[in-house]
Amino acid sequence: MRTGTVYLVGAGPGDPDLLTVKARRLLDEADVVLYDALVSEAVRDLPPESVDCIDVGKRSGGERTTQAEINDLLIRRATAGDDVVRLKSGDPCVFGRGGEEAEELAAAGVPFEIVPGVTSAIAGPGLAGVPPTHRDHASSLTVVTGHEDPTKEDSALDWDALGRSVTAGGTLVILMGVGRLPDNVDALRAAGVGPDTPVAMVERASREDEFTVTGTLETITERAREVGIDPPAVTVVGDVVSVRDRVSEYLRAAGTARSTGGAMADDPAVPTE
After folding, report:
1. Confidence of residue 148 (pLDDT cuts 50, 70, 90)
2. Nearest-angstrom CA–CA distance, 58 and 142
3. Under a CB-based contact definition with an 8 Å cutoff, are residues 117 and 22 in contact?
4. Quick check: helix, strand or coil at residue 96?
5. The Tetrapyrrole methylase domain covers which part of the protein (predicted)?
6. Are residues 237 and 141 in the same domain?
7. Which residues pair with 214 in a beta bridge?
8. Residue 21, helix vs strand vs coil
9. What's the pLDDT score for residue 50?
10. 90 and 161, same domain (yes or no)
């Protein structure tokens, strides 16, 4: 019996139009699709009825499929002859455990291919009118996970270094950081980042209910609380956020999305995303 191929596929931020051509083709041709919790419903609905679609998402405080179970399922289905799409939100190798799964597949002798996707670290800010880099504002870009507790002694993140980067004009993008927003803000303030540094949070980027809130390092925690920012959301810290004021009115609406601002307020009546 032939061994199937596992495709580690990036689903992009949520809008099916942002899937790569290859990702779209593989969803039609797969025998089975294993999808993560953050993959949008619009993308999950694309495979034909003949494809076995399995939810293997990990949900904070809720049902979870362990990584060991996912690895085992990938290997079992492929060795049974199925071509498997492992569908991940954004890009499979940007905090998506694509590298870990690739190692497991290689160790098991299962052929695989990585199919990059549009990461929300770039798409989220861009769709909201915040260019991650800009000649007049930022010549560096740092992407970190927001899951880590900044106060733990063995943190892999050097918040002092991150603070220096932002202070020097760099852009910091924090993924999956809604729950720890106050901690991350405190860590940046402790690292010397000024309280008036612009911040934007983009919730559900590229989807019909996309929502953006802006403020400063001093105000963003309260602003996010006021408007009820929920995961998935991308946080952008740096001077590039100020560009949004000059472009947001002219961005085409993604759907019925709303936007709101703090120190850099938009007109909430204008659907700018």
Report:
1. confident
2. 25
3. no
4. coil
5. 5-220
6. yes
7. 200
8. helix
9. 96
10. no
For 65-112, how does the pLDDT look when each residue is reduced to its tens digit (9 = 90+)?
Answer: 999 999 999 999 999 999 999 999 999 999 999 999 999 999 999 999
Q: Supply the pLDDT for residue 261.
A: 54
Residue 272: inside a domain:
no
Residues 134 and 86 in one domain: no
Which residue range is the domain that position 167 belongs to?
Answer: 120-260
For the chain, how far is it from start to end, CA to CA, in angstroms?
50
Which residues are within 8 A (CB) of 245 and not within 5 positions of it... i.e. 6 or more apart? 264, 266
Contact 109, 36 (CB under 8 A): no
Which of residues 115, 136, 161 is at a domain's end? 115
- Is the pLDDT at 61 greater than 90? The verdict is no
Q: Which residues are catalytic?
A: 36, 58, 176
Amino acid at 83: D
* 74, β-bridge pairs: none
Residue 144 gets the label, from left (phi > 0), alpha (psi -120 to 50) or beta, of: beta
Extract the runs of DSSP E, i.e. beta strands, from the chain: 6-10, 32-35, 52-55, 84-88, 112-115, 141-145, 171-175, 198-203, 211-216, 233-237, 258-260
* Residue 268 is assigned to a structural domain of this protein: no
- Cα-Cα-Cα-Cα dihedral of 254, 255, 260, 265, to 10°? 50
Q: Give which of 173, 264, 256, 145 is closest to 211, Cα–Cα.
A: 256
Q: What percent of the chain has pLDDT over 90?
A: 81
The CATH number for 234's domain is 3.30.950.10
Q: Which of 191, 233, 241 has its CA nearest to residue 216?
A: 241
Residue 80 CB partners (closer than 8 Å, separation 6+):
1, 4
Q: What total of structural domains would you count in the chain?
A: 2
Contact call for residues 148 and 156 (beta carbons, < 8 A): yes
**Residue 273 counted as domain residue:** no
